[in-house]
Amino acid sequence: MTKSSRGFHMRCGALLSLIILAYIAVQGQEQRQIDVQKSKLTVRVYKSGLFSAFAHDHEITAPITHGVFQEANPSVELTVDARKLRVVDPEVSDKDRAEIQATMLSAKVLEAEKFPEISFRSSKIERLGADKWAVQGDLSLHGQTRPVKVEVERQSGIYRGSATVLQKDFGIEPIRIAGGSVKVKNEVRIEFEIVGH
Fold it and tell me: Is the pTM of this model over 0.90?
């Protein structure tokens, strides 16, 4: 092999290495789609008041309709259709569950037809340790946008976390019945499990 051909092969090898490294770097920065079939978001609403022992806490599923996240330069955003939220309270009758569902989606609470989109978009993500992050972002709900902070942990490829939000921060007045002797708390807990494609 001549000196010039060796130089040509070395340049080709270097160029190929650069292309491979660039491809790996770009792949690492690509956004991943949230698997909406395997991911889940649950809202928990808790009772309070003098006769709260006769009321029920509420468990609500909130299917994610779309979402993306990025690991190399951390970011996440997701969207939920408020009209698809479902009350799953296992301890109540079908009739009571349907009434709770109707109230939740009505003008008394979410006004789901008027404000159908619930969304979250991260603004800052800080690594807390191996597979742990503090995520700050904006939650848009009921026509209002407020900052929310969430701690997230990755286990077996699943991102889990929770956050507490105040209904009144989003212009929602917690439901009261029986003159306020039974009511739901202002604080609502949101739990999630996110899986990527």
Answer: no
